[in-house]
Design a protein that fits this description.
- The protein is an all-beta fold and 171 residues long.
- The protein is built from no helices and 7 strands.
- The chain starts with a strand and ends with a strand.
Length: 171
Protein backbone atom coordinates (compact mmCIF):
# COMPACT_ATOMS: atom_id res chain seq x y z
CA UNK A 1 0.00 0.00 0.00
CA UNK A 2 2.03 2.91 -1.27
CA UNK A 3 1.38 6.20 -3.03
CA UNK A 4 4.16 8.52 -4.06
CA UNK A 5 4.81 11.22 -6.59
CA UNK A 6 6.03 14.67 -7.33
CA UNK A 7 5.11 17.64 -9.44
CA UNK A 8 6.78 20.85 -10.50
CA UNK A 9 5.28 24.07 -11.81
CA UNK A 10 7.44 26.69 -13.55
CA UNK A 11 6.39 30.17 -14.53
CA UNK A 12 8.46 32.82 -16.28
CA UNK A 13 7.37 36.09 -14.71
CA UNK A 14 9.69 38.06 -17.01
CA UNK A 15 12.58 37.06 -19.25
CA UNK A 16 14.89 37.27 -16.20
CA UNK A 17 12.60 36.16 -13.29
CA UNK A 18 11.46 32.55 -13.00
CA UNK A 19 9.15 31.05 -10.34
CA UNK A 20 9.26 27.34 -9.46
CA UNK A 21 7.12 25.29 -7.08
CA UNK A 22 7.93 21.65 -6.33
CA UNK A 23 5.86 19.24 -4.26
CA UNK A 24 6.60 15.60 -3.56
CA UNK A 25 5.31 12.98 -1.19
CA UNK A 26 5.50 9.34 -0.19
CA UNK A 27 2.80 7.64 1.89
CA UNK A 28 2.76 3.96 2.70
CA UNK A 29 1.31 1.47 5.12
CA UNK A 30 2.57 -1.98 6.07
CA UNK A 31 0.78 -4.64 8.08
CA UNK A 32 2.82 -7.60 9.38
CA UNK A 33 1.54 -10.72 11.07
CA UNK A 34 3.94 -13.38 12.36
CA UNK A 35 2.32 -16.59 13.54
CA UNK A 36 3.94 -19.51 15.36
CA UNK A 37 1.75 -22.60 15.39
CA UNK A 38 1.37 -24.17 18.86
CA UNK A 39 2.22 -27.55 17.31
CA UNK A 40 5.57 -26.33 15.92
CA UNK A 41 8.95 -26.87 17.57
CA UNK A 42 9.69 -23.20 18.14
CA UNK A 43 11.67 -23.05 21.39
CA UNK A 44 10.86 -19.46 22.29
CA UNK A 45 7.14 -19.81 21.69
CA UNK A 46 5.99 -23.12 23.10
CA UNK A 47 2.25 -23.05 22.84
CA UNK A 48 2.48 -20.75 19.82
CA UNK A 49 2.43 -17.02 19.41
CA UNK A 50 1.16 -14.22 17.24
CA UNK A 51 2.82 -10.87 16.61
CA UNK A 52 1.16 -7.96 14.82
CA UNK A 53 2.90 -4.83 13.56
CA UNK A 54 1.28 -1.98 11.65
CA UNK A 55 3.29 0.90 10.19
CA UNK A 56 1.99 4.05 8.54
CA UNK A 57 4.55 6.50 7.16
CA UNK A 58 4.14 9.76 5.30
CA UNK A 59 6.64 12.25 3.95
CA UNK A 60 5.99 15.57 2.20
CA UNK A 61 8.59 17.95 0.78
CA UNK A 62 7.93 21.26 -0.96
CA UNK A 63 10.03 24.10 -2.36
CA UNK A 64 9.11 27.52 -3.68
CA UNK A 65 11.97 29.14 -5.60
CA UNK A 66 12.39 32.54 -7.22
CA UNK A 67 15.32 32.84 -9.63
CA UNK A 68 16.57 36.19 -10.91
CA UNK A 69 19.14 36.11 -13.70
CA UNK A 70 19.94 39.57 -15.02
CA UNK A 71 22.78 41.08 -17.01
CA UNK A 72 23.26 44.46 -15.33
CA UNK A 73 25.97 45.75 -17.71
CA UNK A 74 28.00 44.22 -20.51
CA UNK A 75 30.48 42.92 -17.93
CA UNK A 76 28.36 42.48 -14.78
CA UNK A 77 25.82 39.65 -14.35
CA UNK A 78 23.69 38.89 -11.28
CA UNK A 79 22.02 35.57 -10.51
CA UNK A 80 19.89 35.40 -7.34
CA UNK A 81 18.02 32.36 -6.00
CA UNK A 82 15.58 32.81 -3.11
CA UNK A 83 13.62 29.89 -1.76
CA UNK A 84 11.53 28.37 0.96
CA UNK A 85 11.55 24.65 1.84
CA UNK A 86 9.09 22.71 3.99
CA UNK A 87 9.63 19.06 4.92
CA UNK A 88 7.52 16.89 7.21
CA UNK A 89 7.42 13.23 8.06
CA UNK A 90 5.02 11.28 10.26
CA UNK A 91 5.44 7.69 11.45
CA UNK A 92 2.80 5.71 13.31
CA UNK A 93 3.63 2.27 14.71
CA UNK A 94 1.30 -0.20 16.45
CA UNK A 95 2.58 -3.47 17.89
CA UNK A 96 0.68 -6.27 19.66
CA UNK A 97 1.70 -9.75 20.71
CA UNK A 98 0.13 -12.76 22.35
CA UNK A 99 1.31 -16.25 23.27
CA UNK A 100 -0.22 -19.48 24.46
CA UNK A 101 -2.56 -20.13 21.55
CA UNK A 102 -5.52 -22.34 22.40
CA UNK A 103 -6.26 -23.56 18.87
CA UNK A 104 -3.72 -24.55 16.22
CA UNK A 105 -4.11 -22.97 12.78
CA UNK A 106 -6.11 -20.02 14.11
CA UNK A 107 -3.73 -17.01 13.78
CA UNK A 108 -5.67 -14.36 15.70
CA UNK A 109 -4.95 -12.41 18.91
CA UNK A 110 -8.31 -13.58 20.27
CA UNK A 111 -6.76 -17.10 20.32
CA UNK A 112 -3.98 -16.04 22.74
CA UNK A 113 -4.22 -16.80 26.45
CA UNK A 114 -1.52 -14.27 27.34
CA UNK A 115 -1.01 -10.76 25.95
CA UNK A 116 2.64 -9.79 26.26
CA UNK A 117 2.22 -6.17 25.39
CA UNK A 118 0.72 -3.63 23.12
CA UNK A 119 2.70 -0.62 21.98
CA UNK A 120 1.61 2.37 19.97
CA UNK A 121 3.78 5.29 19.01
CA UNK A 122 3.88 8.30 16.75
CA UNK A 123 6.88 10.33 15.64
CA UNK A 124 6.57 13.63 13.80
CA UNK A 125 9.38 15.68 12.32
CA UNK A 126 9.11 19.07 10.65
CA UNK A 127 11.66 21.35 9.08
CA UNK A 128 11.20 24.75 7.46
CA UNK A 129 13.93 26.79 5.82
CA UNK A 130 14.48 30.01 3.93
CA UNK A 131 17.51 30.10 1.68
CA UNK A 132 19.21 32.36 -0.81
CA UNK A 133 22.20 32.67 -3.05
CA UNK A 134 23.56 35.62 -5.02
CA UNK A 135 26.26 35.22 -7.67
CA UNK A 136 27.90 38.34 -9.02
CA UNK A 137 29.79 37.62 -12.23
CA UNK A 138 32.28 40.05 -13.70
CA UNK A 139 33.39 39.67 -17.29
CA UNK A 140 32.59 35.93 -17.13
CA UNK A 141 35.90 35.45 -15.27
CA UNK A 142 35.45 36.60 -11.67
CA UNK A 143 32.56 35.38 -9.49
CA UNK A 144 31.52 36.33 -5.98
CA UNK A 145 28.95 33.99 -4.40
CA UNK A 146 27.07 34.79 -1.20
CA UNK A 147 24.63 32.26 0.23
CA UNK A 148 22.74 31.46 3.40
CA UNK A 149 20.12 29.20 4.86
CA UNK A 150 17.94 29.85 7.91
CA UNK A 151 16.40 26.63 9.18
CA UNK A 152 13.91 25.75 11.91
CA UNK A 153 13.54 22.12 12.96
CA UNK A 154 11.27 20.25 15.34
CA UNK A 155 14.06 17.96 16.58
CA UNK A 156 15.76 20.66 18.65
CA UNK A 157 14.64 22.35 21.85
CA UNK A 158 12.07 25.10 21.20
CA UNK A 159 14.36 27.93 22.29
CA UNK A 160 17.24 26.59 20.12
CA UNK A 161 15.35 25.20 17.12
CA UNK A 162 16.57 27.77 14.59
CA UNK A 163 20.01 28.09 13.02
CA UNK A 164 21.61 30.01 10.17
CA UNK A 165 24.58 29.05 8.05
CA UNK A 166 26.08 31.46 5.56
CA UNK A 167 28.88 31.09 3.00
CA UNK A 168 31.04 33.32 0.80
CA UNK A 169 33.08 32.23 -2.19
CA UNK A 170 35.30 34.05 -4.66
CA UNK A 171 36.42 32.31 -7.81
Amino acid sequence: NRVYGQTQLDYDLTDWIKLTYRLGGDIYAQDDKNYYNPLSNTLNYEGGGIFLADYINSLVNSDFIVNFNHKITDKLNLNVVLGQNYYTTNQITRLAQGTGLALPNFPDLANASSFNGTTEGEVQYRRSAWYGQAIFGFDEQLYLTLSGRDETTSTLAANHDNFFYPSVDLA
